Amino acid sequence: MIKITNLEKTYRTEEVETVVLHALNLEVREGEFVAVMGPSGCGKSTLLNILGLLDDPNSGSFVFDNTETVGFNERRRAELRKHAIGFVFQSFNLIDELTVYENVELPLIYTGVSAAERKTRVEEVLDKMRIMHRRHHYPQQLSGGQQQRVAVARAVVNRPRLILADEPTGNLDSSNGNEVMDLLSELNEQGTTIVMVTHSEHDARYSHRIVRMLDGQTVTETILT
Amino acid sequence: MLRHYITVTLRNLLKHKLISAINLFGLTMGLTCCLLILAYILHETSYDRSPPTASRIYRVTRDFYDPNGATTLQLSAVAPVIGPLLKSDFPQIEKMAIILSGGSIVARYEDKILTQDSLAFADGNFLDLFGVRVLSGDARTALQEPRTIMLEQRTARKYFGTADPLNKELKLDGNLLCKVTGVYQGLPENSHLHPAMLISYTTLNDPSLYGEEAMRTSWSSNSFHTYLQLPATYDAAQLEAQFPAFLDRHMPQPKRAADFVPPSKMTSLQLQRLTDVHLTSHRADELEANGDITRVYIFSIIALFVLLIACINYMNLSTARAALRAKEVGVRKVIGARRSEIILQFLGESVLITALATALAVGCALLALPWLSRLAGTTLSPELLLRGPVLAGLLVLPLVVGVLSGLYPALYMSSFQPQHILKGFLKNSGGLTFRRALVVVQFVVSIGLLVGTAIVLLQVRYLQQTPLGYNREQLLTMTYPPTLTPQYEAFRQALQQQASVLNAGRSSRIPTGRLLDASDAAAVVGDSLRPTAASIKFVSIDDQFLPTYGIRLAAGRNFSPAFPTDTTGFILNASAVRMVGWDSPAAAVGQAFRYGGVMGRVVGVVEDFHFESLHQPIVPLVMFLSTVTSRSSYNLLTVKIAGANVPAALAHLESTWKQFLPEQPFAYTFLDESYNRLYEAEQRQSTLFALFAGIAIFIACLGLFGLSAFAITQRVKEIGIRKVLGASTSTIVVLLSSDFLRLVGVAALLALPLSWYLMHRWLQNFAYRIEMPWWVFPLAGLAAVLIALVTIVSQTVSVARANPVRSLRTE
User: Fold this and answer.
1) How are beta strands A193-197 and A162-166 bridged, if at all?
2) What whole-number distance in Å separates Cα of residue B201 and Cα of residue B101?
3) How far apart are the C-alpha atoms of A167 and A190, rounded to whole Å?
4) Is the Cβ pair A94, B331 closer than 8 Å?
5) Cα-trace Rg, chain A
6) Fewest CB within 10 A of the end CB: N or C in chain A?
7) To probe the interface with A, which of B334, B339, B415 has the most A CB atoms within 10 Å?
8) Which residues from B are below 8 Å from A when comparing CB atoms?
């Protein structure tokens, strides 16, 4: 599903040039659950942004579903993102002015799903995430665990084939964290490919394969199952 | 999608109440100002559209030139011969109508005696051309016979109540008996003339009025407002081009060939579009006070300025607040929104807010309209704003203003990169320069309006306080009926029997009026009698006129019954003496002088005084007694009363009047009221100027308030750290305030030369004006800085005083 070869990413400011990703190679198969680990600044998040088409590499290739995405314009990136990719963030990133229901509904609005179908699908996913009873609340009124469940619901409501998770449990206590990890595992079992960046060895064990990075390169791979 | 956007907009509005209120309030104020001024403009530009062929009707006007070709007089009316001659010479003229304003007279029906304004002479052509609706009587014949009269509906009710006025008789000015032959509906309020009574034009052939001979041949009684209707596709300039030849063909030539000058070198005729009369015509003898196109421009510009300031508030506050919505933008982009969709969302938001403001503004404008009408001295009806095109415009307005004020914030916010925002790095320095520039623009406009207000107010005060060369206090003026002349001495003595009446004088015109009468003048300079270089205006006065007004003599003496030769005596003003070329007022006294064919001597010279308004320079003036030879009559009486007991003086005046003039209603005007009316336009302008300047500054300060409030919340942590490190409250206030104050300072530097230039030009409209008051400029700048300072400091102080531990903990 994902094939990255010789990826380079450099950030430049006026005085310094920082190499973030250097000759990086990575392959993720359909249905896989991959955890990316490594110390701060090793390039994990940049990798995730490139996978999510939020950022561009300086060189190298990123093939998604047999299509080279490097050089896509804004419109094609947005298309691919809204149909195929869901995001889960450490800080949830829910829109404060929208209710739980409306936050989850948002991706469906952008893909142009009809109102009736939106209702069915949002309720279905809220139900699945066990947050249905909170659908009229605003994010500020929820606990961290609940917020992250809403964020996961929003990530999956469009039935993406790939979920990118950036330290999804980083802001949660362990019981809420476990709950979110269980949800991700469950999604993965149902066929969704997941790439997760994490600092937590505990969370990483939910995955099939742990990729460790250092200084912009993958250094080791551990296959768990 | 739309519903989603509306929901988000409304929730954001409610969440940030202060900023939403500032935005909504500012936009509402700005739009209200625009709507009010729109109503004013629509009213001013709607004049004289009611005649069915309005666009093809022209008014004939006349100019006069001195031998050097300089224009000496511009009249809105022409001589009685001109209309009929034009009609017979030029077949392309489809219709021609003449109306002669009769001013105010005394009208009597049975025992009802009333002073009647807006009397006019006209015939059926006038009714036809102006599309006057005749309510009773026959439009074709009602004004055919001499001594017939048609009444405007309200006038008819005034005299006859509900009774049918047809065939009843009204007695005008004590001797002219007219039969009522019809009633008509008055011309709309937005017309440049509103005759209340129309006497048949043929009545003027009566020898006691103009006489048949004069009506047929006079080229000099230029009081006849003459209107032509031209064919739809005809170019009026073509007709105008033939007027000089027309004048040379018809005007009487001087008897001596040596004096021959083609009449077209001394006078000319012009065509003026009927629909242009109200806004562009400022000629002498206009039927009513006209509007002024420059005033319309000035107020349009001010309205746009106020709206601009409100739009800038929106731009500034939205971009400043962008950080608060950055996460939303990031999330939307991550989920798959394109930039264009985000731009559309934010534009939609500003359009929605503007639509809300527009709805509020329509309400406010309708409420404020009667009040503005009073302030502007016109009648602005709500219908002006409720017409189809205006309503359609109101639907488009939010779109235009919304996009205008929302575009920059939308472009700015949609440019956020999600990968940065969602990690929490947001540099909000973007747009800062732009925001600063906008604040400068707001204050340039505000300070400019402040300077404008101050200078307009100072000029108006100057007009009211400038020494006029006569004393305008406690002077009563009234129409002088010629019938009083035989008993005038007895009347005056009866008046002055009581100490409350100090003096009374008669004249053909009075100060605060215009000087429009002139005749040929010649004076002895050296040893020959030579015509004067430029024209000299005249006023006929009696021997009590100068003392009544307190006009001072510079040399010689006043007229006096002790000198029988005074019937050919002249009193000049100092300007006339200078123009003639005599060395001094004293040197002029005793010199031979010929005026209007009468040969005589200069008996006195008065110091210059402001006969006309201060818009006009003092012109050379000659005064003489009304005699058979001078052919000028007294039209007005001025009575000087003691200030101590005005009611007693008035009562005495009235009883004396009734005793001598039982047929004549007693009506008077205080001269200083007439004087104040001269500057009413400027008065109003200054009030409106002050109002709009106030609104502009208020909205600009609201914006500054919002902006500084926002800047402070962003810097709470910085303030905390500074305080922990030992900064005092005052240094923090200075730190937070100086940023914004610098901007206001820059605005002041830009605004001052700009407003200096504009106000310098405005002052050129006055022949007598204040020196440019230099101190107004630093004062206006300082005032703006102070207002801004109060706005900002009111917020910074509480933040600067707060315990830093709290702000650091909340971070």
Assistant:
1) parallel
2) 11
3) 21
4) yes
5) 17
6) C
7) B334
8) 1, 4, 7-8, 11-12, 15, 327-328, 330-339, 341, 417-419, 422-424
Q: Tell me, what's the pLDDT at B300? A: 87
CA–CA min distance A32, chain B (Å) = 22
Two structure tokens written together for B44: 């001013």
pLDDT in tens, A19-41: 889 999 999 999 999 999 999 88
Number of Cβ atoms within 10 Å of the Cβ of A52: 21
Inter-chain contact B333–A49, Cβ cutoff 8 Å?
no
Q: Percent of chain A at pLDDT above 70?
A: 100
By C-alpha distance, the chain A residue nearest B424 is: A91
The model's confidence at residue B191, banded by pLDDT at 50, 70 and 90, is: very high
A109 interaction partners in chain B (CB closer than 8 Å): 1, 4
Chain A residues touching residue B338 (CB < 8 angstroms): 74-75, 78
Residues B518/B267, Cβ–Cβ less than 8 Å: no
User: Taking CB atoms and an 8 Å limit, are B419 and A54 in contact across chains?
Assistant: yes
Positive or negative, the CA dihedral B616, B622, B628, B629 is negative
**Residue pointed to by tokens 């005759």:** B195
Q: What's chain B's average pLDDT?
A: 87
- List C-alpha distances in Å: A172 to A39, A87, A89: 20, 17, 12
Residue B668 is given by DSSP the state -
- Give the phi and the psi of residue B809 in degrees, each rounded to 5: -70, -40
Tokens of B698: 């208020």
Task: Please tell me which residue, B319 or A28, carries the higher pLDDT value.
Answer: A28
Angle of helix B339-376 versus helix B2-15 axis, rounded to 10: 60
Which domains, ranges and CATH numbers included, belong to chain A? Answer: 2-223 (3.40.50.300)
Who contacts B149 (Cβ-Cβ below 8 Å, separation ≥6)?
B170, B178, B179, B180, B181, B197, B198, B199, B200
As a whole number of angstroms, the longest Cα–Cα distance in chain A is: 54
The amino acid present at A19, given as its one-letter code, is V
Q: Which is it for the CA torsion B623, B624, B630, B634, positive or negative? A: positive
Check the CA dihedral B496-B500-B503-B506 and report its sign. negative
Nearest CA distance, B341 vs chain A (angstrom)? 9
Q: How many CA atoms lie within 13 A of B577 on its CB side?
A: 27
A220 has which bridge partners? Answer: A212
Contacts of B56 (CB under 8 A, 6+ apart): B94, B229, B230, B231, B232, B234
